Amino acid sequence: MRYWKFAVGSLLMSIMLMASLYADAQGTITKNDAGKTTGVIRWLSSSRVYEVASAGVTVTIKPEEVQTIDVEKPADLDKVAGLCQAGQYQSVIPSLEKIIEKYAMLQWDMPAGAMLATAYNKSGQAQKAADMCKKLTNGRPEALGTTADFVSAFWDSLRLSKQTVEMEKQLNLAISSGSKESCAVAYVKRGDLYKDKGDLKAALVDGYLRTVLMFENVKEIQPEALFKTANCFEEMKQPAQADRWRKKLMADYPQSSYIKQFGTP
């Protein structure tokens, strides 16, 4: 009976989330000449232009004319994020797919894409995650250099789907010319590749510990880097070092979900 109530509750939540996603995407496009156009914004992938409809008038704007786009945040994105954090990955996939479809090239597709890639990865669908990420970044190379959450999930999907050549290419590019945030994430993911090969020392020196020491100000990647540093030292039979970095994680990031994962690879 308890399971049935939980299943029905999850179904109702999914229906409510899905229904709310069909509302129009209201926003404003500011052009390079400082002109502003406000209305319902859609990205037309076939012709690669933005369409803005307001008061019965529709105009199109080319991407190269756009300076900024400001679109209202999807009403239920925070609820979906909460479900992701709670580990309810299967239940959020349909909603996130709809957000990405509706908000294509409209600023919220990348945060939703990061969550969807994680949900796919955690649900054993890494290939699907990789395909989705490639589609989102097609024609948007800047996405691989500025969005830490997204590239982290993207690179995880490449590793899990055994696309290591493509992954290494992207990591090298991020390290050589990406933002500080994407560079920090790239070193952690490089550590994962070394660890997969059984080279724990390289995973530390050129991956996890490097990130901990050189990118301390990139807060969003530090919990993962500290967690993997501690686990790596544990596997290397250096308990004192493992304990040192474990304590740092618990002291500096007491709310991190990684704390609950100690003892797992």
List the helices and strands and how they pair.
Blueprint: H1 2-20, E1 26-31, E2 36-44, E3 49-54, E4 57-61, E5 66-71, H2 77-85, H3 89-102, H4 109-122, H5 126-137, H6 143-146, H7 148-160, H8 164-177, H9 180-196, H10 200-214, H11 222-235, H12 239-252
Antiparallel strand pairs: 1-2, 1-5, 2-3, 3-4
Helix pairs in contact: 1-3, 2-3, 3-4, 4-5, 4-7, 5-7, 7-9, 8-9, 9-10, 10-11, 11-12
Compute the average pLDDT.
Answer: 88
Range of helix content: 55-70%
Decide which structural class fits the backbone.
alpha+beta
Radius of gyration: 21 Å
What is the CATH domain class? Mainly Alpha
Largest sheet: 5 strands, antiparallel
Q: What is the compact description of this entry?
A:
The chain has helices at residues 2-20, 77-85, 89-102, 109-122, 126-137, 143-146, 148-160, 164-177, 180-196, 200-214, 222-235, 239-252, and strands at 26-31, 36-44, 49-54, 57-61, 66-71. Helices cover 60% and strands 12% of the residues.
Explained architecture:
With 265 residues, the protein is of the alpha+beta class. The protein has a single domain (75-261), classed as Tetratricopeptide repeat domain (Serine Threonine Protein Phosphatase 5, Tetratricopeptide repeat). Helices cover 60% and strands 12% of the residues. It contains 12 helices and 5 strands. The protein has helices at 2-20, 77-85, 89-102, 109-122, 126-137, 143-146, 148-160, 164-177, 180-196, 200-214, 222-235, 239-252; strands at residues 26-31, 36-44, 49-54, 57-61, 66-71. The protein has a 5-stranded antiparallel β-sheet with strand order 4-3-2-1-5, with no helix packed on it. Strand 2 (36-44) and strand 3 form a beta hairpin. Helix 3 packs antiparallel against helix 4 (109-122), helix 7 runs parallel beside helix 9 (180-196) and helix 9 (180-196) packs antiparallel against helix 10 (200-214). The longest helix is centred in the N-terminal third of the chain and has 19 residues, at 2-20. The radius of gyration is 21 Å and the shape is elongated. The two termini are 35 Å apart. Residues 1-23 have low confidence and may be disordered.
